[in-house]
Every structure is written in C-alpha cells, then in structure tokens.
Amino acid sequence: MGELTTRENTALSPETVEVVSVVVRDIMAPLMESIGKMLKHNTEAMEQIAAAQTLTSQRIADLEKRVRLQTPMTRTQEKYIGDAIRARARELLDTKGYADDKKAVTKLSGAIRKSVLTRWGVSSLREAPAYDYETALKQIGMWSDFMAIRDVTKEARKRAEMAMVPTEQPTGMDGQEALARPDDQPGERNMREDMEG
After folding, report:
1. Which of 27, 45, 73, 164 has a C-alpha 20 to 30 A away from that of 171?
2. Measured between alpha carbons, how far is 42 from 53 in angstroms, rounded to an integer?
3. Which residue ranges of the chain lie beneath pLDDT 50?
4. What percent of the chain is predicted at pLDDT more than 90?
5. CB-based burial of residue 2 (10 Å sphere; 0-12 exposed, 13-18 middle, 19+ buried)?
6. What are the phi and psi torsion angles at 173 (to 5°)?
7. How many other CB atoms are there within 10 angstroms of residue 107's CB atom?
8. Do residues 143 and 112 touch, judged by C-beta distance below 8 A?
9. Which residues does 106 contact at the CB level (< 8 Å), separation at least 6?
10. Is residue 129 within 8 Å of residue 68, measured between CB atoms?
C-alpha cells in the first residue's frame, strides 16, 4: 500500500500538467521561433549562393567560348586545311578525269575554301577559330557543290580540247611552210611571198 501512495504522490495532477506545458511552451516558443528564423535565413543565404554560383559558371562558360572563338588557327592547322581542300578538289575532279589539270584543281579549291570561310564569316583561314579545326576538315570531306564542279569541269574540258587541236603553220603559195627571215618586219613576209610567187 505504501507503493500506491508514492505513485499517487508522484503522479501530476491535470492542473500541474497544464501549468508545466504552458511553462515549457513559453520557454520553447521563442527558441523554436529563433530556430525557424535562422533556418529561413540559411535557406535564403543558400539560394543566394546557388544563384551566384550559377551566374559565375555562366560567366566562365561565356569567357571560355569567347577565348575559343578568338583563338585563331595555327599555321600548321591552316596548312593542313589547305592540303585537305586541294585533296578534295583532286578527288572530285578525278571522277571526271581532270585531276591533273592544275587550273581546274586551283579553281575548285577556291570554291571549297570560300565555302569553309563563309561558315565562319572570315576572309582567311588565319582568322578562323582554332577549336573548329576538326569541323572544318569534316566540312571539306563532305563538300560537293554540283554547279561549281560542273563549271570547273566544263572549263577543264575546253582546255583539254584546245590542247588536242594542232596549231596551223603559215604556208607559202605552193603550200609549203613559209620561212621567216630574221630581218623580216611584221607584214614583210607576206609581201616577200607575193613577190616571189
């Protein structure tokens, strides 16, 4: 029976429980409120830090892009691109049978070069961005402008036909080749031939 009395004495009355809960609430409310404010400030600070990091990352990316765009090709890259352009021109003309025509190769190379330079909006390969070197090589390898190839091929065909036509030698009255004298002036050879005939 002694135990029951102790238990009853240690048990809090409902009024005591209410008083204790009010006291705890009054003590804890300002503490929880300050913790809530602190968490809110921390969240705002973290959002500001995240926004600053995003902005910094964007600025760094823009700066890297600008540096890449403003770094011109090296002379070696420029040489290799020029070699690739000439090789592509020869390759395209080889299918038409004019790969040995230097004028045709040069003219078609000019058309390919113009196409590559137009891509970047520059006037020489030296001004093109170095980072786009591989893209330029791919573009050259795939280049095929039917009209340009046709025009260059047509000119090469005319040159080849002109080379095949034998040049006529001036002939005398008897059909034999007229020989020029070292002291002949222009037009004198014809007059001499008329007199001799």
Report:
1. 164
2. 16
3. 1, 4-6, 188-189, 191-192, 194-195, 197
4. 35
5. exposed
6. -70, -30
7. 17
8. yes
9. 89
10. yes
Tokens linked to 76: 């070696």
Q: Contact, 72 vs 126, CB < 8 A? A: yes
Q: What is the 8-class DSSP label of residue 131?
A: G
Q: What is the pLDDT of residues 154-171, one digit of tens each?
A: 999 998 888 887 655 555
Structure tokens given for 166: 């034998």
Cα end-to-end span (Å), the chain: 169
Question: Does pTM top 0.70 for this prediction?
Answer: no
Structure-token pair, residue 38: 């602190």
> What integer pLDDT is reported at residue 1 of this predicted model?
47
Select from 165, 189, 163, 187 the least CA-distant residue to 177: 189
